[in-house]
Amino acid sequence: MGQESLVIIWDAYTGIPVRTLFDCHPEGGVSAMALSKDSKYLVTVGAGAVQRVCIWNWTDESESPECQVDLSPKYGCQNQLLFNPFDNTQLVSNSSTQVLFYNWERGHLEYSAPEITDKTFNMVLGSLSQSIFYYDGVLAFTATSAGNIVLWDKQTQSVSRQPVVRKAVKLVPLQEEAITVLTLIDSFIVTGDVNGHIKFYDGNLKLINVYNEFSLDPIKSISFSKEKPSISDLGYSKDCTLDAKPFVIRNFVLSTTHATAVHVNAQRNVPQTLLKEHVEPLEAVACHPKQPLVAMGSHSGTIKVWDYEHKEAVCSRVFLPHKQIQCITYDPQGFYLAVGFASGALQIVDACTLQSDDKECFHYSQDSITHLTFSQDSRYLAAAVSRTVTLLRQCKEGTQEVWKYQGRHHSHYKPIQDLLFGVDLDSSQPRLLSLGMDRWLVEYDLQNSGEDGLLILSSERIEQSAVPTCMVWYPPLTPEHFLLTASNLYKMKLFNATSKMCRFAVSL
């Protein structure tokens, strides 16, 4: 979707793209698409204000579709699309309020919009979620958020340049939960719902079996294996009918709204999580100091460590109950990963396994942790929470190294913009500095600070009108040691690391 959008058709076995359709919907990208059963034709629907449905013969070299039609905006955004598996000239799509049936003949594409509302059957219809054709290619079903199934039947035979007309003939209350996925496999009609349950019905919409013990999020899609199950019914669970026959079904993969893909072995009734990605946008990223690894955290509470050389996930963890991850950082040795949460909690985990002891979780504030930084010797960890700096120190208890609270100080009257450790050139002892929106640069007295509080060594106002945004140690290219800052007025300044005097300034 968006500008310069495209469609890529891949070879599923080699992972190589075999055809790319560039800017096929310049009005906003692609909202939905589907392949015909013989895979010769591809249908796409645009995401613009006026949606356009295009049918492509993607196996030839043509850059234009075989046919196309613009849809009226009054039918809503069509976000589900499907070929009739028994007749490539018929298609169905739906928005949350309207089902459209298409007929494609001799390069001409037309559609019909049969009426369907709560008044059609004097029952609550619900939002439309997905539509399919039944095995005879004539009947069609549409699932709704009220747990209903709308049955469509052909009303008349198509005549010259007129699409096939279908009519809603029945509304079947199938279940109480909202249906999110509707598909067919073998002789079964399959639904997925908002409770994460997968249900199988026969052609008369009678319940045959249900998978409800997997504790899944709302189902987004279901895909069945192309391999048919073995003839032997050994090992298969019984169905839900009075006859309790073995329920023989293909293995399947399903995805959920929380970015999880799960494989289900139907014979053993065992789910296997194939993929679990971030549900919310990434809020925190940190690179490992010594290995080709990058850790990514999001507000969904997930941290995933990615090997960017081998292009694979190394480990992941979902953090509960604090959940919303705001910032993360590795220590310089690469042994620890500090995780700051929007709840104010701070957790220190093993960088390799992402596991931690309950004692390694600290919670000294209700505000979000915005910055985390380790000292060069990995003995100190500092956290910025709004206008306050909190310091932790690694201590030895018996044979174990544990992190302990050292102190905190409300050192700024506006939010902290950056937090930085350094090294004193004379004593090689760590230094800690914070930079706030209040334009003050504060250095802390680590040597004399204890549990009574974090002491301030010096405090300097470094700007008059500009608001500093970040700081970093200038590379040691000269005998004089500098601190480099940037501001919202696109200026950079060099300060003497000891006296905090400005030595050079430049506008960008």
SSE topology sketch:
Blueprint: E1 6-11, E2 16-22, E3 30-35, E4 41-46, E5 52-57, E6 67-70, E7 80-84, E8 87-94, E9 99-105, E10 108-112, H1 118-121, E11 128-133, E12 140-144, E13 148-156, E14 165-173, E15 179-185, E16 188-193, E17 198-201, E18 207-211, E19 219-224, E20 252-256, E21 260-265, E22 270-276, E23 282-287, E24 293-298, E25 302-307, E26 312-318, E27 325-330, E28 336-341, E29 345-350, E30 361-363, E31 369-374, E32 380-385, E33 388-397, E34 400-410, E35 416-423, E36 430-436, E37 440-450, E38 453-461, E39 468-473, E40 482-487, E41 491-496, E42 502-507
Antiparallel strand pairs: 1-2, 3-4, 4-5, 5-6, 7-8, 8-9, 9-10, 11-12, 12-13, 13-14, 15-16, 16-17, 17-18, 19-20, 20-21, 21-22, 23-24, 24-25, 25-26, 27-28, 28-29, 29-30, 31-32, 32-33, 33-34, 35-36, 36-37, 37-38, 39-40, 40-41, 41-42
Tell me what the structure shows.
This protein is mostly beta strands and 508 residues long. It has 1 helix and 42 strands. The model has no long low-confidence stretch (mean pLDDT 89).
Instruction: Report low-confidence residues grouped into runs of 5 or more.
Output: none
Q: N- to C-terminal separation?
A: 35 Å
Cα-based radius of gyration, to the nearest Å: 31 Å
Could you tell me the number of beta strands?
Answer: 42
Describe the sheet with the most strands.
Answer: 4 strands, antiparallel
The geometry reads as elongated
The averaged pLDDT comes out at 89
Question: How many H/I helical runs?
Answer: 1
**Residue share in β-strands:** over 45%
